[in-house]
Amino acid sequence: MQINLHGKSVLLAVTGSISVYKACDLARLFVKAGAQVHVVMTPAAERFVSARTFEALTRNPVLTESSESWSSELNHIDMGKKCDVCVVAPATANTINKLSQGFADTILTQTILAFNKPILLAPAANTAMLDNVFTRESMEKLLKNGYRIIQPQEKLLACGDVGSGALAEPEEIFYASAKALLSDTFWEGRAVVVTGGGTREKIDEVRYVSNFSSGKMAKALCLSLYLKGANVTYITSMGSEALPEDISTIAANDAEEMFNATKEATAVAKQTNSEKEPYLFMVAAVADYTAADPKEGKLKKVNLGKSWNIEMKQTTDILASLDKSGMKTIAFKAEMDSKEGLNNAVALLSNKGVDAVCYNLLQDATSFGGNENEITFISKEAQVPLDRADKLTLSGKILTEAKKLIEELS
Predict the structure, then answer these.
(1) Would residue 4 count as lying in a domain?
(2) What is the DSSP letter of 169?
(3) What is the pLDDT of residues 167-221, one digit of tens each?
(4) Whether 83 is catalytic
(5) Looking at the domain assignment, is residue 91 inside a domain?
């Protein structure tokens, strides 16, 4: 899923840590997303990676102590003016402590002191240095003053110690930065539950009945919500690969687990933020039937014979059974009936008591697992074709329509 940052500008502030090489990967991610990247480096950072490396990656001049110019925009005042967000990665303990005191003794601290937009800090230092009382107090002070901290990893550090202090993965820093750039006040802090993937109904310990749902649409929706600032809980049988770690993921393999997890998550969501009504996006392809008597162990075909009749029973209808009061509920309906599919989707509004339906007309089994989709957003007020698009772009369109469910009432 490719995040679109075209039209955005990032100030990447690089300090003197062994993990500077990861800042190169971070710069690549920003550039790939379409953002303009402007780099400022401390003299200590230049000892690890040259400014020329970042110039090659970003195609922009790098601001250093020796390159600053007042005859162009390559200076600590103008550099910040053209950027939308500042990302300090890696941020050494030395720089963290300086920033908390408002020091401006390097080109980097001067630039940040003059920067008045969102600032993200990704610490990278020895565990003891970050855990030092002065550093901890500095980070607390920075947090109180609007800085956003991207927590370091716990692993084997370059110094040989094991502990928290390794720079967060470039992808996680990129996600957090993109969130700062793309946040929407409507979704910020709003609790949202998303279900995704096909459930797996156990026959025995090694076999199950499932469907062709890939979970890609749900993942795209989770990412889009995260980027807009929502507090996302993702309930799925498909895992959370390629999603930010900040998205809370709950594993639910079968329909019963999906129902129980969704029931609990929506109850928690209703209690999370009284000022913002929560949302449920029911994207999961939940099985209509499950094995009536799933077996322990592995059934042997020599004992089953040439044919095998499996007794099935209906699963709980999650949408019909949930308490949907106090939240907006959007169902997803996949159909293969071109004549009655749309009518079946519209009927969900009254039959299941949902606020909207995302209707998708499938051709056949090959319609699953692709990177694109085509959806019609159906509410009581309108039927809005969202056209065919990649699933992340389509998710943004869905959220625009979902937002109207509340805005039109206010």
Answers:
(1) no
(2) P
(3) 999 999 999 999 999 999 999 999 999 999 999 999 999 999 998 888 999 999 9
(4) no
(5) yes
Distance, in Å, from the CA atom of 75 to the CA atom of 95, rounded to the nearest integer, reads 19
Give the tens place of pLDDT for each residue, 87-139: 999 999 999 999 999 999 999 999 999 999 999 999 999 888 999 999 999 99
Shared domain check, 189 and 108: no
- Residue range(s) defining the domain that contains residue 93: 9-181
Q: Do 144 and 35 share a structural domain?
A: yes
Cα–Cα distances in angstroms (integers) from residue 181 to residues 87, 127, 206, 394, in the given order:
11, 30, 45, 19
Q: Are strands 9-14 and 36-41 parallel, antiparallel or unpaired?
A: parallel
Q: What string of DSSP letters covers 114-137? A: T--S-EEEEE-S-HHHHHSHHHHH
Phi and psi at residue 76, to the nearest 5°: -70, -10
Q: Check whether residue 260 and residue 353 sit in a common domain.
A: yes
Whether residues 245 and 360 share a domain: the answer is: yes
| Residue the block writes with tokens 């901890």 | 136
H-type alpha helices, 33-85: 43-46, 51-58, 78-81
The CA-based diameter of the chain, rounded to the nearest angstrom, is 86
Final residue of a structural domain among 181, 202, 232: 181
List the catalytic residue out of 24, 159, 222, 358. Answer: 159
| CA–CA separation, 212 and 208 (whole Å) | 13
Per DSSP, the three-state class of 33 is coil
Look at the chain and report how many structural domains it folds into.
2
Distance of CA 151 to the CA centre of its chain: 16
* Residue 91, domain CATH: 3.40.50.1950
